[in-house]
Amino acid sequence: MHNFSMLLTQKCLSMGLIDKSYSEWLSYSIEKRATTLLTWFVLCLVGFFGFGWKLTLSFSIFFLLIRKYTNGYHAATYSHCLFLSILMEIIIFTFVSSIFYFKWALPLILTVSSILIWCIAPVNTASIHWSECELKIVKTAVRWLLFILNALAILLIKLQIAPSILQGLSAALAADAITLFISSCQKLKGGRTNENSSQGIRQKEN
């Protein structure tokens, strides 16, 4: 996918469509959108045949909506990302579908997932590189979005309508919370590794 984005970028440069200073930005944008489209195409195929189009479509819409603001875990390679995405989709869909008829189950998933997203999101990365001001704006947007999605979930539970939408919403929040938790653990582990490395260097100098 990286090679594909670089090829398109070079083509745009040779045709004079963009300035050279924008080549890195264009390459990243093409790669990100291409991987997102391909990944969701595969995930939708798996979901449609395995769990039905209503649950899959509902999950896709809600997950893309919340993920746009929260960010989260990114695998090192595209093949790794695709494998983990399919695995997570199958596990979460199976779990949400199997516990749907327990009245306390989905509200519990929604509550725990929302708390994790509220506390962790958004996750800043080197590729996104939000400023402090941008982080505050995105954090506010995440919390408003959580409020709206949970209000929708409460409405669906109270009225006992559109079970596929409720399942998709629960699955989307759970998936996002999981990716955020993994990303947070990685960040914490990376910080400890850097701290230990710094201590080792100081000891050698002393």
Q: What keyword list fits this structure?
A:
206 residues; mainly alpha; 2 domains; 7 helices; 0% strand; globular; cell membrane; peptidase activity; transmembrane; membrane; AgrB
Describe this structure in words.
The structure is a single chain. The protein has 206 residues and is mainly α. It folds into 2 domains: 51 residues; 154 residues, no CATH class. The chain contains 7 helices and no strands. The model has no long low-confidence stretch (mean pLDDT 83). GO terms for molecular function: peptidase activity. InterPro entries: AgrB. Keywords: Cell membrane, Hydrolase, Membrane, Protease, Quorum sensing, Transmembrane, Transmembrane helix.
Concise overview:
One of its GO terms (biological process) is proteolysis. This protein is mainly alpha-helical and 206 residues long.
